[in-house]
Design goal:
Layout (H helix, E strand, L loop, with lengths): L4 E10 L2 E11 L4 E5 L6 H8 L7 E6 L2 E2 L5 H4 L3 E4 L1 H6 L6 H6 L15 H13 L15 H13 L5 E5 L7 H16 L5 E6 L11 E6 L2 E7 H4 L2 H8 L3 E6 L2 E6 L2
Parallel strand pairs: 3-8, 3-9, 6-7, 7-8
Antiparallel strand pairs: 1-2, 1-4, 4-5, 9-10, 11-12
Helix pairs in contact: 5-6
Bound molecules: adenosine-5'-triphosphate and magnesium ion.
Adenosine-5'-triphosphate binds next to β2 and α1.
C-alpha cells in the first residue's frame, strides 16, 4: 500500500445498509482532498476509517504505509490529526483551552496529571496564536464561541505535527467573517513547507479553501467522482451528488454553487 491513505474496495455495512459501498481511492503524500456530499452520504464514516477509528466490513484500508487490522492503532493515531465536532462534544466545558490543545501531545482529552514539557506548552501557545485565539488560552472550552471552538480543534489536531490531517466540517456553524478567516488559516497550513496530507469534509463548495488539490464526491456511500479538483468539481457531478440541477461558478480558485432555477 503506497499512498498516505489507500482504500481498496472498502465497504462498511451496518445491518442491511451500506454506509460506504466499494470505495477505492489513493491519496498521495502532499495532496489535499475535500470530500463533498449530502447528509448521510458516508463522509464521516470515511474519515473514521482514514483516522483508524473504525475498521471496514470488507476491503482493505492503508494508512501511512500500515494496513488497518495489522497495526496497533494506538501507534498510528498520534501520526494523524483529527478535528470533528464529535470530539468537541466529548470535551468537558471546564477544560482550559491551552490544555485542550496541549493534551493532544499525550493522546488524552481532559486535564493530564503529569507535568507538561515546556516545548509542548510553547507549541500549543504558538498554534493558538496562529489561529488568532492566543488570548483565549486561559479560558475554558465551554465559554468559547462556535468559531473559536473550531479553531481550537484544528490547533489541537496539529499539536502532534501529524503526517495526516483529517477535518470533519471545519467551517460549519461559522459566520461569513469567521469562515473566511478559518479558510485563510487553512490555506496557510496547506501551503506551508511541511504541510500534512489533508482530507477535509464539507457540504458546501464555498467552504473549500485555496490549496485543496483533489475532490471526492460521495452519494449514498458510493463515489460519484474522485480526482483533481478541477476535473471533479463540475455541474454534472454536483447534480449527480446532490440530486438537484446546479449552477457552479469558480473565481480566483474559490467555488460557489446554487440550484439552477
Ligand atoms: N451504526 C449505524 N447503523 C446504521 N446506520 C448507520 C450507523 N452509523 C451511521 N449510519 C448511517 O450511515 C450513513 C452515513 O453516515 P455518515 O455519518 O458517514 O454520513 P455523513 O456523510 O457524514 O453525513 P452528515 O453530512 O450528515 O454528517 C447515515 O445515513 C447514518 O445514519
Ligand atoms: Mg458527517
Amino acid at each position: 500500500m503506497s499512498g498516505v491513505v489507500e482504500f481498496d474496495s472498502v465497504s462498511v455495512r451496518r445491518g442491511r445498509s451500506f454506509l460506504l459501498d466499494d470505495i477505492s481511492l489513493t491519496i498521495a503524500e502532499g495532496e489535499h482532498w475535500v470530500v463533498l456530499g449530502p447528509n448521510g452520504a458516508g463522509k464521516t464514516t470515511l474519515l473514521q476509517l482514514a483516522g483508524a477509528r473504525m475498521h471496514p466490513t470488507t476491503g482493505a484500508v492503508g494508512i501511512l504505509e500500515e494496513r488497518l487490522g495489522r497495526v496497533d492503532v494506538f501507534e498510528l493515531r498520534p501520526r494523524i490529526g483529527f478535528a470533528s465536532s464529535n470530539l468537541a462534544q466529548q470535551t468537558p466545558r471546564s477544560e482550559v483551552v491551552r490544555d485542550f490543545v496541549l493534551t493532544a501531545a499525550y493522546g488524552v482529552l481532559g486535564r493530564w496529571t503529569e507535568e507538561y514539557e515546556a516545548d509542548d506548552v510553547a507549541r500549543a501557545e504558538d498554534l493558538l496564536a496562529a489561529f488568532h485565539i492566543g488570548e483565549l488560552a486561559e479560558r475554558t472550552f465551554g465559554t468559547l464561541s462556535e468559531g473559536e471552538r473550531k479553531r481550537a480543534q484544528i490547533a489541537r489536531a496539529l499539536m502532534t505535527d501529524p503526517e495526516l490531517l483529517l477535518l470533519d466540517e471545519p467551517a460549519s456553524g461559522l459566520d461569513l467573517g469567521g469562515r473566511e478567516e478559518l479558510l485563510q488559516a487553512l490555506t496557510e497550513i496547506l501551503g506551508s513547507a511541511h504541510a500534512p496530507t489533508t482530507i477535509m469534509v464539507t457540504h458546501h463548495v464555498e467552504e473549500i479553501p485555496l490549496g485543496v488539490t483533489h475532490a471526492l464526491l460521495l452519494r449514498e456511500g458510493g463515489a460519484v467522482a474522485a480526482g483533481p479538483i478541477g476535473e471533479v468539481l463540475t455541474e454534472g457531478n454536483l447534480e449527480e451528488t446532490f440530486g438537484i440541477p446546479v449552477v457552479l461558478t469558480e473565481q480566483d480558485g474559490r467555488y460557489s454553487a446554487r440550484a439552477r432555477l
